[in-house]
Amino acid sequence: MSYFSDIYKGIKTLLTGMSVTGKYFLHSQKGGITQQYPDNRETLKMFERFRGEVVMPHDVNNQHRCTGCQKCELACPNGTIEIIWDRQVDPETGKKKKLIEKHIYHLGMCTMCGLCIEACPTDAIKWAQNYENSVYDRTTLTRVLNKPGSKLMPGVED
Amino acid sequence: MNLSLSITKNIHDWLFNMMPETLASLVEMTLIALIYLTIFAVIGLFLVLLERKVAAWFQLRIGPNRVGYHGILQTMADALKLVSKELTGTVNADKFLYNLAPYFVIITALMALAVLPFSLEFQAFDINIGIFFLIAISSIGVIGILLAGWSSNNKFALIGAMRSGVQTISYELSVGLSLLTMILITGTLQLSEIVEVQRNGWLIVQGHIPAVFAFMIYMISGTAETNRAPFDLVEAESELGAGFHTEYSGMKFAYFFLAEFVNMFIIASIATTIFFGAWLSPFGITESLPWLGVFWFLGKTLILMFLMMWFRWTFPRLRIDQLLTLEWKYLLPLNLMNIVLMALIVWLNLTIQF
Fold first, then answer.
1. Do the Cβ atoms of A32 and B313 come within 8 Å?
2. Residues of chain B above pLDDT 70, percent
3. ipTM topping 0.95
């Protein structure tokens, strides 16, 4: 008779649900998923896929991987990236070569779409995971990504 | 009033020596009323905090932890905020009924509190129709909700109130019948005597199979009586705003809110009294210390309330037709069968007695 089997099934499914929440209840004491933000400012680390801002990593010799190809500038849908470049004589080969002077990034205009990072052929720029990006003055949102005096890492263009 | 724990006895004698009898009993009544109001407020505030904490743990959160040590003062702060808020009302509301409704809800909750046997003789009003009184009082509470919904002159509030009416009238039947099943064993409606009967084993043990069924039915329909999730069609935030108390603010809203939690306490403590031996300790381990009964009573009630919170944070809200199907097609027929089964067991002396 389906009447009694319905009751049996009903109770069984209810108990299944209760066992799930019961497990959650017991495990919550080990620390839930809540981040108590301003308190754990020192230890809070954002996960890998978080998009905080675009940065250009430099190695210990103050060298970056940006060749100044401007693909990121073209890829950006809202003109966030501006590259000031110049043709200079490469001391190694003695030939004229395109070198970046300033890689300017306007964080205030960035929508974190990530198209520039996908477009970059040399992996010169990547996402940083910092999350406290608010400032009092919007001019500080305009950043020069390459450090002063930095050079192109040898071998990137090969 | 027969609070005959030694302190209360002394106060009683002292009062009656101090002043004429009429005045003394008036003073005593006032004192008892104040004590019960305090109990009401403390239970309400504590349960709101507990609910929030338990809810947080069920959802792997932390819950209130900012006000006081681990957030214990959170509900006090909330209550203070609500006291300080303006009591807004609607222009077209029926002012008299609108203002009356919260008191209906709160007074019924208080009246039910008075008959609960917290410990040996710690019971304000040991009436000989105790259970009957409790069932009757708990169904008066719905009048407050209906009044609130009707007088608010708001369609959401009215829909909420009407749902509450449907729900309470249906489920009160199951509450009454499941308690009646247990009355077959005790043979009395007086709460203090029901407790005495359980000295030979708690009723859920004495009545074994039908008692367990009765307990399950009681807990389900009791949850529905208090309008808690998964039976909170009355409030149904996603459909009706806040249901019957949409138009209430400040302290009047707080009355509804507190009464809801106190009703939960009452439902759980009736279950404690009927099924789990009220203030009796398991195996009589603290029989020589009757005042410890308060802790046993509150402990058992707490466990049952935790069960109700467990329901609440596990199951989604029922639709109104599912609600009525559950009651009229499942709980009620099962309940009637259960009564027959229990009657058979009592008749054939198959109860388990220690």
1. no
2. 97
3. no
